[in-house]
Protein backbone atom coordinates (compact mmCIF):
# COMPACT_ATOMS: atom_id res chain seq x y z
CA UNK A 1 0.00 0.00 0.00
CA UNK A 2 1.31 3.46 -0.88
CA UNK A 3 2.34 5.53 2.12
CA UNK A 4 0.84 8.94 2.92
CA UNK A 5 2.91 12.09 2.47
CA UNK A 6 3.19 12.37 6.21
CA UNK A 7 4.86 8.98 6.41
CA UNK A 8 7.21 9.77 3.62
CA UNK A 9 8.47 13.23 4.54
CA UNK A 10 12.19 12.78 4.73
CA UNK A 11 13.96 15.94 5.62
CA UNK A 12 17.01 14.41 7.11
CA UNK A 13 17.83 10.93 5.98
CA UNK A 14 19.95 9.97 8.96
CA UNK A 15 20.15 12.52 11.74
CA UNK A 16 18.03 15.45 12.78
CA UNK A 17 18.05 18.04 15.53
CA UNK A 18 14.40 17.29 16.29
CA UNK A 19 12.50 14.05 16.08
CA UNK A 20 9.36 16.12 15.35
CA UNK A 21 10.65 17.17 11.92
CA UNK A 22 9.22 14.19 10.02
CA UNK A 23 5.73 15.35 11.08
CA UNK A 24 3.56 17.23 8.61
CA UNK A 25 4.13 20.98 9.03
CA UNK A 26 0.40 21.51 9.66
CA UNK A 27 0.96 19.89 13.05
CA UNK A 28 2.77 23.07 14.06
CA UNK A 29 0.71 25.78 12.40
CA UNK A 30 -1.30 26.51 15.52
CA UNK A 31 1.69 26.51 17.85
CA UNK A 32 2.84 29.78 19.36
CA UNK A 33 6.45 29.40 18.15
CA UNK A 34 7.93 28.26 14.88
CA UNK A 35 7.85 24.55 15.70
CA UNK A 36 10.62 22.04 15.39
CA UNK A 37 13.95 22.69 13.75
CA UNK A 38 16.72 25.09 14.35
CA UNK A 39 14.45 27.98 15.24
CA UNK A 40 12.31 26.08 17.68
CA UNK A 41 13.25 28.39 20.52
CA UNK A 42 12.40 31.52 18.57
CA UNK A 43 9.47 33.57 19.75
CA UNK A 44 6.26 33.68 17.75
CA UNK A 45 5.90 36.74 15.52
CA UNK A 46 5.23 39.77 17.69
CA UNK A 47 3.04 41.35 15.07
CA UNK A 48 0.23 40.37 12.77
CA UNK A 49 1.47 40.03 9.21
CA UNK A 50 0.95 43.17 7.14
CA UNK A 51 -1.85 41.61 5.12
CA UNK A 52 -3.98 41.44 8.23
CA UNK A 53 -4.07 37.66 8.37
CA UNK A 54 -2.97 35.83 11.45
CA UNK A 55 -1.97 32.32 12.21
CA UNK A 56 -3.09 29.61 12.20
CA UNK A 57 -4.34 29.01 8.71
CA UNK A 58 -5.99 25.70 8.16
CA UNK A 59 -5.00 23.15 5.59
CA UNK A 60 -8.18 21.17 4.88
CA UNK A 61 -8.05 17.73 6.41
CA UNK A 62 -8.42 16.03 3.01
CA UNK A 63 -5.06 17.47 1.91
CA UNK A 64 -3.37 16.37 5.13
CA UNK A 65 -4.41 12.80 4.50
CA UNK A 66 -3.74 12.72 0.77
CA UNK A 67 -1.24 10.33 -0.78
CA UNK A 68 1.92 11.97 -2.07
CA UNK A 69 1.28 10.81 -5.64
CA UNK A 70 -2.19 12.39 -5.62
CA UNK A 71 -0.86 15.70 -4.34
CA UNK A 72 1.70 15.87 -7.12
CA UNK A 73 -0.88 14.87 -9.69
CA UNK A 74 -3.22 17.62 -8.48
CA UNK A 75 -0.43 20.20 -8.64
CA UNK A 76 0.47 19.16 -12.17
CA UNK A 77 -3.08 19.23 -13.47
CA UNK A 78 -3.86 22.57 -11.79
CA UNK A 79 -0.74 24.03 -13.41
CA UNK A 80 -1.88 22.74 -16.75
CA UNK A 81 -5.37 24.13 -16.31
CA UNK A 82 -4.10 27.56 -15.25
CA UNK A 83 -1.39 27.73 -17.92
CA UNK A 84 0.15 31.19 -18.42
CA UNK A 85 -2.18 32.64 -15.79
CA UNK A 86 0.01 31.10 -13.09
CA UNK A 87 3.67 31.32 -12.15
CA UNK A 88 5.20 29.40 -9.25
CA UNK A 89 8.32 30.90 -7.69
CA UNK A 90 10.48 28.87 -5.32
CA UNK A 91 13.38 29.75 -3.05
CA UNK A 92 16.47 27.50 -3.02
CA UNK A 93 15.64 26.41 0.54
CA UNK A 94 12.37 24.78 -0.45
CA UNK A 95 12.16 21.02 -0.22
CA UNK A 96 12.59 19.05 -3.45
CA UNK A 97 8.95 17.97 -3.48
CA UNK A 98 8.06 21.65 -3.91
CA UNK A 99 10.99 22.80 -6.06
CA UNK A 100 10.05 20.25 -8.75
CA UNK A 101 6.88 22.27 -9.43
CA UNK A 102 8.46 25.74 -9.46
CA UNK A 103 8.73 27.65 -12.75
CA UNK A 104 11.64 29.61 -11.35
CA UNK A 105 13.99 28.86 -8.44
CA UNK A 106 16.35 31.51 -7.13
CA UNK A 107 17.73 33.62 -4.30
CA UNK A 108 15.78 36.51 -2.80
CA UNK A 109 17.10 39.07 -5.26
CA UNK A 110 16.32 36.91 -8.28
CA UNK A 111 12.87 36.05 -6.98
CA UNK A 112 12.10 39.75 -6.50
CA UNK A 113 13.14 40.33 -10.12
CA UNK A 114 11.10 37.33 -11.26
CA UNK A 115 7.97 38.87 -9.72
CA UNK A 116 8.44 41.79 -12.14
CA UNK A 117 9.02 39.76 -15.25
CA UNK A 118 5.79 37.77 -15.41
CA UNK A 119 3.16 40.49 -15.90
CA UNK A 120 0.81 38.09 -17.69
CA UNK A 121 0.54 35.70 -14.78
CA UNK A 122 -2.58 36.60 -12.85
CA UNK A 123 -1.42 34.53 -9.87
CA UNK A 124 2.08 34.36 -8.43
CA UNK A 125 2.30 31.43 -6.03
CA UNK A 126 5.32 32.06 -3.85
CA UNK A 127 6.99 29.01 -2.33
CA UNK A 128 9.17 30.83 0.14
CA UNK A 129 8.55 32.88 3.26
CA UNK A 130 6.27 35.78 4.13
CA UNK A 131 8.63 38.70 3.49
CA UNK A 132 9.41 37.32 0.01
CA UNK A 133 5.72 37.08 -0.87
CA UNK A 134 5.12 40.62 0.42
CA UNK A 135 7.93 41.86 -1.80
CA UNK A 136 6.45 40.07 -4.80
CA UNK A 137 3.09 41.71 -4.08
CA UNK A 138 4.70 45.16 -3.90
CA UNK A 139 6.63 44.67 -7.14
CA UNK A 140 3.92 42.95 -9.19
CA UNK A 141 1.16 44.83 -10.95
CA UNK A 142 -2.20 45.72 -9.45
CA UNK A 143 -4.10 43.04 -11.33
CA UNK A 144 -1.80 40.26 -10.12
CA UNK A 145 -2.30 38.35 -6.88
CA UNK A 146 0.42 36.81 -4.75
CA UNK A 147 -0.30 33.65 -2.79
CA UNK A 148 1.78 32.18 0.03
CA UNK A 149 0.71 28.51 0.32
CA UNK A 150 1.16 28.46 4.11
CA UNK A 151 0.70 31.76 5.94
CA UNK A 152 2.70 30.43 8.88
CA UNK A 153 5.85 30.45 6.74
CA UNK A 154 7.46 33.50 8.32
CA UNK A 155 11.10 34.21 9.07
CA UNK A 156 12.30 34.29 12.65
CA UNK A 157 15.03 36.80 11.77
CA UNK A 158 12.55 39.19 10.14
CA UNK A 159 10.48 39.04 13.31
CA UNK A 160 13.45 40.23 15.36
CA UNK A 161 12.91 43.75 14.04
CA UNK A 162 9.32 44.85 14.47
CA UNK A 163 8.16 48.23 13.26
CA UNK A 164 7.65 49.76 16.71
CA UNK A 165 11.13 48.81 17.96
CA UNK A 166 12.77 50.23 14.84
CA UNK A 167 10.74 53.47 15.05
CA UNK A 168 11.71 53.85 18.72
CA UNK A 169 15.38 53.20 17.96
CA UNK A 170 15.23 55.71 15.11
CA UNK A 171 13.89 58.42 17.45
CA UNK A 172 16.70 57.79 19.92
CA UNK A 173 19.25 57.82 17.12
CA UNK A 174 17.81 61.06 15.73
CA UNK A 175 17.94 62.66 19.14
CA UNK A 176 21.56 61.61 19.63
CA UNK A 177 22.78 62.79 16.23
CA UNK A 178 20.49 65.83 16.27
CA UNK A 179 18.19 65.40 13.28
CA UNK A 180 14.45 65.38 12.66
CA UNK A 181 13.39 61.69 12.66
CA UNK A 182 10.51 62.42 10.28
CA UNK A 183 12.53 64.43 7.84
CA UNK A 184 16.30 63.96 8.05
CA UNK A 185 18.11 66.68 6.08
CA UNK A 186 21.52 66.37 4.41
CA UNK A 187 24.32 68.50 5.93
CA UNK A 188 26.65 70.97 4.17
CA UNK A 189 28.51 67.99 2.64
CA UNK A 190 25.21 66.82 1.15
CA UNK A 191 25.11 63.75 3.41
CA UNK A 192 22.43 62.49 5.75
CA UNK A 193 23.48 61.85 9.37
CA UNK A 194 22.09 58.27 9.30
CA UNK A 195 20.53 56.23 6.50
CA UNK A 196 18.37 53.15 7.22
CA UNK A 197 19.18 49.94 5.34
CA UNK A 198 16.91 46.96 5.79
CA UNK A 199 17.76 43.45 4.75
CA UNK A 200 15.16 41.93 2.45
CA UNK A 201 14.30 39.65 5.41
CA UNK A 202 12.02 42.23 7.03
CA UNK A 203 8.38 43.24 6.96
CA UNK A 204 6.90 45.47 4.25
CA UNK A 205 6.38 48.11 6.95
CA UNK A 206 10.13 48.35 7.51
CA UNK A 207 10.81 48.52 3.79
CA UNK A 208 8.33 51.43 3.72
CA UNK A 209 10.17 53.04 6.66
CA UNK A 210 13.38 52.91 4.59
CA UNK A 211 11.63 54.19 1.48
CA UNK A 212 10.31 57.32 3.16
CA UNK A 213 13.54 58.13 5.02
CA UNK A 214 15.96 58.01 2.08
CA UNK A 215 16.91 54.40 2.78
CA UNK A 216 17.14 51.20 0.80
CA UNK A 217 16.62 47.43 0.93
CA UNK A 218 19.47 44.97 0.36
CA UNK A 219 19.73 41.24 -0.15
CA UNK A 220 22.70 39.03 0.64
CA UNK A 221 23.73 39.23 -3.04
CA UNK A 222 23.91 43.03 -3.34
CA UNK A 223 24.66 44.12 0.25
CA UNK A 224 28.11 45.50 -0.69
CA UNK A 225 26.72 47.57 -3.58
CA UNK A 226 23.96 48.83 -1.29
CA UNK A 227 26.34 49.86 1.50
CA UNK A 228 28.47 51.75 -1.03
CA UNK A 229 25.32 53.48 -2.27
CA UNK A 230 24.42 54.35 1.32
CA UNK A 231 27.83 55.79 2.19
CA UNK A 232 27.70 58.04 -0.87
CA UNK A 233 24.62 59.60 0.72
CA UNK A 234 25.16 59.37 4.47
CA UNK A 235 27.77 59.42 7.21
CA UNK A 236 26.45 56.28 8.82
CA UNK A 237 23.97 53.46 8.39
CA UNK A 238 21.42 51.78 10.63
CA UNK A 239 21.42 48.17 9.36
CA UNK A 240 18.64 45.77 10.35
CA UNK A 241 17.66 43.07 11.20
CA UNK A 242 20.73 40.86 10.50
CA UNK A 243 23.80 41.90 12.44
CA UNK A 244 25.91 39.24 10.71
CA UNK A 245 25.22 40.25 7.12
CA UNK A 246 25.80 43.88 8.14
CA UNK A 247 29.05 43.14 9.94
CA UNK A 248 30.43 40.78 7.29
CA UNK A 249 29.67 43.21 4.48
CA UNK A 250 30.96 46.33 6.25
CA UNK A 251 34.12 44.51 7.37
CA UNK A 252 34.85 43.47 3.78
CA UNK A 253 34.59 47.16 2.85
CA UNK A 254 37.31 47.98 5.36
CA UNK A 255 35.15 49.34 8.17
CA UNK A 256 36.71 48.61 11.57
CA UNK A 257 34.75 46.56 14.11
CA UNK A 258 34.88 49.39 16.65
CA UNK A 259 32.99 51.52 14.14
CA UNK A 260 30.08 49.09 13.98
CA UNK A 261 28.49 48.81 17.40
CA UNK A 262 25.49 46.58 17.97
CA UNK A 263 22.14 48.23 18.61
CA UNK A 264 20.19 46.22 21.17
CA UNK A 265 16.61 47.52 21.01
CA UNK A 266 15.97 46.58 24.62
CA UNK A 267 18.66 48.91 26.01
CA UNK A 268 18.92 52.71 26.12
CA UNK A 269 21.03 53.99 23.23
CA UNK A 270 21.03 50.38 22.05
CA UNK A 271 23.43 49.52 24.88
CA UNK A 272 26.10 51.93 23.64
CA UNK A 273 28.05 54.81 25.14
CA UNK A 274 28.14 58.28 23.60
CA UNK A 275 31.67 57.55 22.36
CA UNK A 276 30.52 54.32 20.68
CA UNK A 277 27.83 56.22 18.84
CA UNK A 278 30.08 59.15 17.89
CA UNK A 279 32.51 56.87 16.09
CA UNK A 280 29.84 54.55 14.63
CA UNK A 281 29.67 54.07 10.88
CA UNK A 282 27.28 51.14 10.95
CA UNK A 283 24.77 50.52 13.74
CA UNK A 284 24.01 46.80 13.66
CA UNK A 285 20.59 45.67 14.81
CA UNK A 286 20.67 42.77 17.26
CA UNK A 287 19.12 40.19 14.91
CA UNK A 288 20.31 36.88 13.47
CA UNK A 289 19.25 33.80 11.56
CA UNK A 290 18.77 30.75 13.77
CA UNK A 291 19.81 28.42 10.96
CA UNK A 292 23.04 30.19 10.07
CA UNK A 293 24.13 30.94 13.61
CA UNK A 294 24.57 27.18 14.07
CA UNK A 295 27.69 27.14 11.88
CA UNK A 296 31.01 27.34 13.72
CA UNK A 297 34.73 27.66 13.05
CA UNK A 298 35.19 24.25 14.72
CA UNK A 299 33.02 22.67 12.04
CA UNK A 300 35.20 24.26 9.36
CA UNK A 301 38.37 23.03 11.11
CA UNK A 302 36.94 19.52 11.30
CA UNK A 303 35.94 19.54 7.63
CA UNK A 304 39.44 20.64 6.63
CA UNK A 305 41.00 18.00 8.86
CA UNK A 306 38.80 15.25 7.51
CA UNK A 307 39.06 16.33 3.86
CA UNK A 308 42.41 18.06 3.31
CA UNK A 309 42.07 20.42 0.37
CA UNK A 310 38.32 20.77 0.71
CA UNK A 311 36.82 24.18 0.10
CA UNK A 312 34.30 25.86 2.34
CA UNK A 313 31.57 28.29 1.30
CA UNK A 314 29.06 29.82 3.70
CA UNK A 315 26.13 32.22 3.57
CA UNK A 316 26.92 35.74 4.89
CA UNK A 317 24.21 35.34 7.57
CA UNK A 318 26.82 33.20 9.37
CA UNK A 319 28.75 34.83 12.22
CA UNK A 320 31.88 36.78 11.20
CA UNK A 321 34.49 34.26 12.48
CA UNK A 322 32.81 31.58 10.33
CA UNK A 323 32.79 33.79 7.22
CA UNK A 324 36.44 34.69 7.89
CA UNK A 325 37.44 31.03 8.23
CA UNK A 326 35.62 29.99 5.04
CA UNK A 327 37.13 30.20 1.55
CA UNK A 328 34.14 32.12 0.25
CA UNK A 329 30.77 33.48 1.26
CA UNK A 330 27.77 34.54 -0.74
CA UNK A 331 24.04 34.44 -1.33
CA UNK A 332 22.29 31.18 -2.07
CA UNK A 333 22.77 31.76 -5.78
CA UNK A 334 26.46 32.56 -5.24
CA UNK A 335 26.77 29.24 -3.40
CA UNK A 336 25.09 27.48 -6.31
CA UNK A 337 27.47 29.14 -8.77
CA UNK A 338 30.49 28.23 -6.61
CA UNK A 339 29.51 24.57 -6.80
CA UNK A 340 28.71 24.83 -10.51
CA UNK A 341 32.21 26.22 -11.15
CA UNK A 342 33.91 23.39 -9.23
CA UNK A 343 35.39 20.27 -10.86
CA UNK A 344 34.61 16.57 -10.59
CA UNK A 345 36.34 15.13 -7.52
CA UNK A 346 36.22 18.42 -5.58
CA UNK A 347 35.14 18.38 -1.95
CA UNK A 348 32.98 21.30 -0.86
CA UNK A 349 31.62 21.97 2.62
CA UNK A 350 28.65 24.31 2.63
CA UNK A 351 27.31 26.45 5.46
CA UNK A 352 23.70 26.99 4.58
CA UNK A 353 20.25 25.41 4.77
CA UNK A 354 20.12 21.65 4.35
CA UNK A 355 17.55 21.29 1.55
CA UNK A 356 19.73 23.39 -0.69
CA UNK A 357 22.92 21.54 0.26
CA UNK A 358 21.30 18.14 -0.31
CA UNK A 359 20.04 19.26 -3.73
CA UNK A 360 23.49 20.47 -4.75
CA UNK A 361 24.95 17.15 -3.62
CA UNK A 362 22.37 15.28 -5.72
CA UNK A 363 22.91 17.52 -8.76
CA UNK A 364 26.70 17.01 -8.66
CA UNK A 365 27.19 13.35 -7.72
CA UNK A 366 30.78 13.42 -9.03
CA UNK A 367 31.76 15.85 -6.19
CA UNK A 368 31.66 15.46 -2.43
CA UNK A 369 29.27 18.16 -1.20
CA UNK A 370 28.11 18.22 2.39
CA UNK A 371 26.69 20.50 5.07
CA UNK A 372 29.10 21.86 7.69
CA UNK A 373 26.63 21.26 10.49
CA UNK A 374 26.66 17.59 11.54
CA UNK A 375 23.26 17.91 13.27
CA UNK A 376 21.32 18.77 10.21
CA UNK A 377 18.41 21.20 10.39
CA UNK A 378 16.24 22.81 7.77
CA UNK A 379 14.91 26.34 8.02
CA UNK A 380 11.82 25.54 10.06
CA UNK A 381 9.78 28.25 8.34
CA UNK A 382 10.70 27.42 4.73
CA UNK A 383 9.83 23.83 5.67
CA UNK A 384 6.24 24.89 6.27
CA UNK A 385 5.58 24.99 2.55
CA UNK A 386 4.65 21.45 1.71
CA UNK A 387 3.07 19.93 -1.44
CA UNK A 388 -0.18 19.63 0.52
CA UNK A 389 -0.48 23.42 0.82
CA UNK A 390 0.61 23.91 -2.78
CA UNK A 391 -2.01 21.44 -4.07
CA UNK A 392 -4.68 23.13 -1.94
CA UNK A 393 -4.03 26.70 -3.12
CA UNK A 394 -3.74 25.59 -6.76
CA UNK A 395 -6.91 23.48 -6.67
CA UNK A 396 -8.64 26.49 -5.13
CA UNK A 397 -7.42 28.76 -7.94
CA UNK A 398 -8.80 26.35 -10.53
CA UNK A 399 -12.11 26.48 -8.66
CA UNK A 400 -11.98 30.29 -8.80
CA UNK A 401 -11.09 30.76 -5.13
CA UNK A 402 -8.05 32.64 -3.85
CA UNK A 403 -6.60 31.26 -0.63
CA UNK A 404 -3.77 32.84 1.39
CA UNK A 405 -3.42 36.00 -0.64
CA UNK A 406 -0.67 38.35 0.54
CA UNK A 407 -1.81 41.89 0.03
CA UNK A 408 0.31 44.75 1.33
CA UNK A 409 -1.77 47.87 2.08
CA UNK A 410 -1.40 50.50 -0.63
CA UNK A 411 0.27 53.24 1.49
CA UNK A 412 2.89 50.81 2.79
CA UNK A 413 3.43 49.33 -0.66
CA UNK A 414 4.04 52.72 -2.30
CA UNK A 415 6.76 53.67 0.21
CA UNK A 416 8.30 50.18 0.27
CA UNK A 417 8.47 50.19 -3.53
CA UNK A 418 10.77 53.24 -3.39
CA UNK A 419 13.27 51.31 -1.26
CA UNK A 420 12.86 48.16 -3.38
CA UNK A 421 13.42 50.01 -6.66
CA UNK A 422 16.67 51.36 -5.19
CA UNK A 423 17.57 47.79 -4.27
CA UNK A 424 16.86 46.46 -7.75
CA UNK A 425 19.09 49.16 -9.24
CA UNK A 426 21.97 48.12 -6.94
CA UNK A 427 23.15 45.11 -8.88
CA UNK A 428 24.89 42.18 -7.18
CA UNK A 429 28.62 42.08 -8.01
P1 LIG B 1 19.32 34.61 -0.23
O1 LIG B 1 18.95 36.01 -0.59
O2 LIG B 1 20.79 34.38 -0.28
O3 LIG B 1 18.53 33.65 -1.04
O4 LIG B 1 18.97 34.39 1.30
C1 LIG B 1 17.69 34.40 1.80
C2 LIG B 1 17.65 33.85 3.16
O5 LIG B 1 16.68 33.96 3.86
C3 LIG B 1 18.83 33.16 3.65
O6 LIG B 1 18.59 32.71 4.93
FE1 LIG C 1 14.80 33.47 7.82
FE2 LIG C 1 17.05 32.14 8.43
FE3 LIG C 1 14.99 30.84 7.34
FE4 LIG C 1 16.45 32.57 5.89
S1 LIG C 1 17.14 30.63 6.77
S2 LIG C 1 14.21 32.43 5.93
S3 LIG C 1 16.90 34.14 7.47
S4 LIG C 1 15.02 31.86 9.38
TrEMBL record:
Transferase keyword on record: yes
The UniProt record lists the keyword Metal-binding: yes
Residues where iminosuccinate binds: 91, 108, 199-201, 220, 315-317, 332
Pfam families with a match to the protein in the record: NadA
Chain sites annotated for binding [4Fe-4S] cluster: 155, 289, 379
Gene Ontology BP annotations: 'de novo' NAD+ biosynthetic process from L-aspartate
Key words, A-Z: 4Fe-4S, Cytoplasm, Iron, Iron-sulfur, Metal-binding, Pyridine nucleotide biosynthesis, Transferase
Protein name: Quinolinate synthase
Organism field: Nesterenkonia cremea
Lineage of the species this protein comes from: Bacteria, Bacillati, Actinomycetota, Actinomycetes, Micrococcales
